[in-house]
Amino acid sequence: MAQVQGSKDCGNSPKNKFAQDVAIALECGDAEPSAFSEDVIWENPSTEPISGKGAVLKHLGTRRRPKSVTVQHAISHGKVGAASGEVTFANGQTRRFCHVFDFTSAKANCVAVVRSYS
């Protein structure tokens, strides 16, 4: 598992923490299936949109595993959220990321759409 440094934005906000946790899972290639709706859509810059929970989880298994993940910001408001940060790989290469989430409800505990940027 990657070394993770979380955002200070998550202190008293379970919704921000959920956005952060999903972003970390996307970057590390290991997510809880319950984080996604059955018909989730992942819009990713490196592939065509990925539709369905099973397809998203399968794609996560192909992701390059980082050595570390730093989440700089995790925010949420109503049915939307976002998390941004940087990953570092074993070879020292770094990549910035931003994931924008549409949640299934204002509870912000299940992702309907992910739009990822690198």
TrEMBL record:
<dbReference type="InterPro" id="IPR037401">
    <property type="entry name" value="SnoaL-like"/>
</dbReference>
<dbReference type="Pfam" id="PF12680">
    <property type="entry name" value="SnoaL_2"/>
</dbReference>
<dbReference type="InterPro" id="IPR032710">
    <property type="entry name" value="NTF2-like_dom_sf"/>
</dbReference>
<protein>
    <submittedName>
        <fullName>Nuclear transport factor 2 family protein</fullName>
    </submittedName>
</protein>
<feature type="domain" description="SnoaL-like">
    <location>
        <begin position="34"/>
        <end position="104"/>
    </location>
</feature>
